[in-house]
Amino acid sequence: MVHDYVAALTLVETDFFGRVQEVAEQDITYLKLLDQVKAGEIRKYWIEDGILYAKGGRSFIPSGALRNDLLKDTHDSQWAGHTVVNRMMDLLSRKFYWPNMDQDVEKYVKTCLVCHLDKSELTKEAGLLQPLSIPERPWKSISMDFILGFPNVGGMASILIVVDMFSKYADLIVAPKVFTAEHVAELFLKDVIKYLGYSVHWTIVDSVFQPDGVQTEVFHGQSSSN
Questions:
Q1: All domains of the chain, ordered by start, with CATH?
Q2: What is the pLDDT of residues 139-165, one digit of tens each?
Q3: The model's pTM
Q4: Residue 49: its H or E element
Q5: What are phi and psi of 2, to 5 degrees?
Q6: Helix (H, G, I), strand (E, B) or coil at 85
């Protein structure tokens, strides 16, 4: 059964329409549209409870934080599984509308770090390494990557990314500017194992990326079983 995820987003928000009205106060274009619809100058939108609606009964989302939250929830959530552009657009456009939504969706997917990491694994040249089997359940197989080059804040200047290869769910962990294998093991135990327990099979893939997403070094470790 395919879950209607976007329809459920309004249930997750304790006051979704309140958020729409709050964000709308900062969107001059949205406020102008409200006035034009009230005056009968524009007929392709209508107003219910102070909120604009577009064709199909879709909520017109003002520019700002709420659009970003919807993009993030529709793409990054644990069960959404980092949807591709067409699927993400289909999900969002069922319940929501805003101008140039397709461009925003495409840009969001293109700049998604997890998707870039996953794509790099699929497109790298074949070697002598053993192929990784497709995991049959969440958190049986993971990848670990680092983003380097952030400003040093309290000794922290990098991010350890742990991705579940089944669901594509990512856990981002703040890490020191300089770290050793022992540091990585400590972070992994503290932020992943502590909550998930030990898995039967862990697959480690170590890649180093700059903040702009350019891959600078890749090391692919052979899988092992406990």
A1: 5-111 (1.10.340.70), 132-220 (3.30.420.10)
A2: 778 888 888 878 888 888 888 888 888
A3: 0.47
A4: none
A5: -90, 120
A6: helix
